[in-house]
Amino acid sequence: MLAKITSKNQITIPKKIIEKIPNVKHFDIEFKDGVVIMKPIQFYDTNLDQIRAKIKKLGLKEDSVAEAIKWVKLKKTEPS
Domain ranges in the chain? Predict the structure, then answer.
């Protein structure tokens, strides 16, 4: 399908294409091997207060992820 670049460097995505990806408002765009690739991205609403409450309820701290990574690495090196 043909798409034209406007004087403001904007492109209209043809209706037949956009109908296949409803509710998408953002794209990750890259130029690779002479081809422009547009990948649809979905964003989700997040409630940081709910996330923080869950983290607190679980007792997670700033270094919890680092501790978990150390634990996994240690388990990998232990004989079974």
Answer: 48-77
